[in-house]
Amino acid sequence: MNTFKGRFYSIFIISYYTGFVVLGIALLMVLPILTAVALQEWNPFWDFVITMAISVILGLLLIIIGKQTRLNKSFVQWKHGFVVASLSWIILMFLCAIPYLLSGHVNSLLDACFDVMSGFTTTGMVLTQDLDHISLSLNMWRHMLTFIGGQGMVVLALTFLLKETGGAYIFYVGEAKDIDLVPNVKGTARIIWKISMVYLLIGTAALWIDGMTIGLTPLSAFFNGLFIFASSWSTGGFAPYTQNMMYYHSFSYESLTIIFFILGSLNFGLHYAILSGNKKELIKNIETQSFFITSFLASVLAVLWLARTGVYNDAIAIFRRVVYNVLSAHTTTGFGSVYARQFALEWGDFGILILVIVMLIGGSACSTAGGFKGLRVGIIFKSILADVKRLLASERKVKVFRFHHIKDQILADGLVKASGLIIICYLITFAIGTLIGTFCGYPLASAAFESASITGNVGLSIGITATGMPAVMKVYYIIAMYLGRLEFLSVFALIGFIIGGIKKCWTK
Amino acid sequence: MLDKIIKTLILTVSLLFCLSGGVSAADVVELNQLVENAEAMDGQTVTVTGEAIGEAMERGDHAWVNINDGTNAMGIWMPLDDAQRIKFFGDYKHIGDQLQVTGVFNQACAQHGGDVDIHSNSITVIEAGYVTEESVSSPKIIIGFVLVFLASVLGFIYLKIIKKSDG
User: Fold this and answer.
1) Distance between CA A395 and CA A391 in Å, rounded?
2) Which of A320, A482, B24, B102 is 20 to 30 A from B7, comparing alpha carbons?
3) For each of chain A's 508 residues, which pLDDT tens digit applies?
């Protein structure tokens, strides 16, 4: 039954679902509130109570405005899914920035929004000041944001808050998580969250135990383990201290994070296939092949290059300072085992270029990683090979080319085109970021490094990202992180929707 | 003439010797300066100051203590006895002891897997840390209560409306 009246019914649909997303995130604030109570951090306690109340009010208002949607769910279209995903991210960016602002650890609303977007998009760049003195509850919030952002918060809220999720696949794709592990979307989302929660338990326990062996107290080891796992698995790159991974001074701790961020950068479909007993998928999958080849080549090249400089003289140092950062960049994690300025001062142009390339490629599609993804690189590479083979083959022979990603798939022209378009969009975003960086007076290599890190949602910095950088760069970086994470389509849908709405108003 | 030159030289050397006995503020290097000039400073004995942060991480008869001087943070590798003299470490509820560390700076420490660190020779607590007092402002509490009340009222209205629209 259609009870929608007028031409603007889409607004009600979008309002209704966005309301649920906001409400979902509001409910998650219970966790930092409980942490604040347990640790008697009363200022953060009130900061989170205020933020939660504002979020609940806004969420409920949006649901009430769009309440007609309850009777018209069949009217939900693709455009609504994309717009809900992109709009929710913007609203949540402002709401989740409130605890940062109230904590007094950020210089402005813009800086707070930057850090929230950095968390949501699993980038990991930081503008929060004096990290070494922030409360554990705010740290919990920072790492929760990156963990939830990595798994897909729109999907999380809608799958768990709504009883009926007919057409929920639309929201799924809107958040760049287009995968169908089981026929229904609710099942798929639950599997993704189940996989993540199992890893969360295992990962936190492993880092907790290792944390105690490297000299952390049991309570501190637990929180550090939880935070570092959340960051590793979601390929986020946040850490509770200013020094990031350098705080721990531990090879074992770094090694554990490598395992978790590589696992996090793999496709959820691959995890599901392996957990379902299909172990061969790990070798056959085009994405794992692509990731293995590019990460191996990048590591070898970076090691060879930095061996010439003579800074690192033994294998362990080279692994911990060079390979670690290459893998961290490639999986778009952004954990740093060297100071930001060391990239500029010691890595040289070639080293920076290697990192720029792997940061742009990124991890796997439908994982927590960013970048334009190994799957697309694999598809484009295979299509080039296919075109060469076609040229060399007899004209009468029609050959169908395939690739393996969870199942054997045909290398269709449409797929190649879609992959190419997304890669072009990433490259344009990267180029604009580099352009703005150089315009603001930064050297080309540094501007390109930072722009690649932002566009690929990586989080490694060469020293540009700081509270003192021009506001225009902060704004552009927020947009680039957002575009990169949602893989452009949802944001384009939102822009199209707004322009369409204005046109409608104009023609009325 | 020669006598004068010799006297001046002796005086200058003695003055230099006397002045180098204590560490003046000018001798203290900022941590960020070390990072920026790592190659030039590698292997040199430096003096840095900074707040002990987080906690001491015990590793056998030594420990890692990270210090932050406001320009950057860096790990100090020190004997366990020295680490145990630090009473307060900076975190949300504490301002850590302010340390003055003299030690050897490493651009890529061979002992610690290429770490940028300082191996301490001496540690002095130049300012004791303390527990910070946390007070919540009254307006924050009042705003909190008002917003929670408003959210509850709206929640009640929402349930009424939804029930009505479903019915």
Assistant:
1) 8
2) B24
3) 455 555 667 888 889 989 998 999 999 999 999 999 999 999 999 999 999 999 999 999 999 998 888 776 666 677 777 788 888 889 999 999 999 999 999 999 999 999 999 999 999 999 999 999 999 999 999 999 999 888 777 766 666 666 554 445 555 555 655 555 555 666 777 787 888 889 999 999 999 999 999 999 999 999 999 999 999 999 999 999 999 999 999 999 999 999 999 999 988 888 888 888 888 888 888 888 889 999 999 999 999 999 888 888 889 999 999 999 999 999 999 999 999 999 999 999 999 999 999 999 998 887 888 888 888 888 898 899 988 988 888 777 777 888 887 778 888 888 889 889 889 999 999 999 999 999 999 999 999 999 999 999 999 999 999 999 999 999 999 999 988 888 887 777 778 778 887 777 777 5
The CATH T-level fold of domain B25-131 is: OB fold (Dihydrolipoamide Acetyltransferase, E2P) (2.40.50)
Considering only the beta carbons, identify the residue of B107, B134, B162 that sits closest to A43: B134
Question: Could you tell me the pTM of the whole model?
Answer: 0.88
Residues 107-166, chain A, touching B (beta carbon < 8 A): 132-136
Check B114 against A320: CB less than 8 A apart: yes
Closest to B45 measured CA to CA, from B138, B123, B140, B118: B118
The DSSP output letter for B96 is P
ipTM of the complex: 0.86
Query: In this complex, do B54 and A61 lie within 8 Å of one another by their Cβ atoms?
Result: no
- Amino acid residing at A115: D
Q: Could you give the CA distance from residue B33 to residue B41 in angstroms, rounded to a whole number? A: 9
Residue spans per domain, chain B: 25-131, 137-167
Which two structure tokens, joined as six digits, stand for A353?
């270029």
